[in-house]
Amino acid sequence: MEYRRLGRSGVKIAPLCLGTDNFANPTPEDEAKAMLNRAIDVGINLIDTSNSYAKGESERIIGRALKENGRRQDVLIASKAHYPTGPGPNDRGNGRLHLIQACEDSLRRLQTDHIDLYQLHRPDFEVPIEETLSALTDLVRQGKIRYIGSSTAPAWKVMEAIMVSELRGYVRFVSEQPPYNLLDRRIENELVPMCQAHGLGILPWSPLAMGILAGRYADANDYPERSRAQLRGGIYAERVTARGIEVGNEFVKLAQEAGISAAQLAVLWVKDQPGVTAPLIGPRTLEQLEHFLPVLEMTLDDSVREACDALVPPGSAAANFHNSAPWMKMKL
């Protein structure tokens, strides 16, 4: 397996990362641990979580699993902070008070002395970026985090952070984690070229478009049992559109012609897009994880890439996977 460098850092990661948003919600702990162990066994070395996943339980499961298997040094832990952790006015956002406390809490849940990649789960338009970067720089100097990144931020906000880091001598982002799949390609317009020009790794989330690209949805108003749209509703249900389902059905046919499953092709398409370091896969079961693993060694065929472009042209969208980002005004 060929490992890829994460941005301008000295870190190399596998071309797929294990996302853990399903840990504890709904995946039970024993199966979550089995997935984590299996991922490590095959060489996946970045485990992505957040203090908001299952109210911190995802981090706790990862901490217990790595304590039991003794393989903390074999993986990079990536976590995030931004969302509310309590009722207080300072229990949220990207200010100094919240980030430092959130980091301390995550370290305890993860049972580790450092987080390898600490990411801003969303941008904060109320807190000056200088305060955010200053706090993160202090955490790096204290040895509590190694690298920093952002998630689901507009290109200009990431660029602002890079410029301020360069001017003030603060720690610099090494990565951005945006939503990206064949149904929502809008990051190709500005974010991807910016990351390529300034040396940021890209770690896309939701490469399967919540299973729409695997042909799981037949009706935009009738969700399959145990699908994310059915279990969680809200922003997840909003992402299911009639146009997206139509594309998903065509995509399934394309995958059949290519001789692989639609789920594998969806992840492969993201993995081999220009500028992408490694997409996050978020399996709900060990069986689903096993199904994704062959993608580690696959390469996207140019003719298949062109057929995908014909379904959803570069830079466009057939569903809105930026709907958890208040700054994205466009609705589909």
Summarize the structure.
39% of the residues lie in helices and 11% in strands.
Question: If you had to describe this structure to a student in words, what would you say it looks like?
Answer:
Helix 1 (29-41) packs across helix 2 and helix 9 runs antiparallel to helix 12. The strands form 2 sheets. An 8-stranded parallel sheet has the order 9-8-7-6-5-4-3-10, covered by helices on one side. It has a two-stranded antiparallel ribbon with strand order 1-2. The chain has 332 residues and is an alpha/beta fold. It is 39% helix and 11% strand. The chain has helices spanning 29-41, 57-69, 96-110, 129-141, 155-168, 191-198, 228-232, 234-238, 242-258, 262-271, 286-292, 302-311; strands at residues 4-5, 12-13, 17-19, 46-48, 76-81, 115-120, 145-151, 173-177, 201-202, 280-281. The mean pLDDT is 95. Strand 1 and strand 2 (12-13) form a beta hairpin. It is globular. It has a single domain, classed as NADP-dependent oxidoreductase domain (TIM Barrel).
What labels would you give this structure?
single chain, about 325 residues, alpha/beta, TIM Barrel, eight-stranded parallel beta sheet, two-stranded antiparallel ribbon, 12 helices, 10 strands, about 40% helix
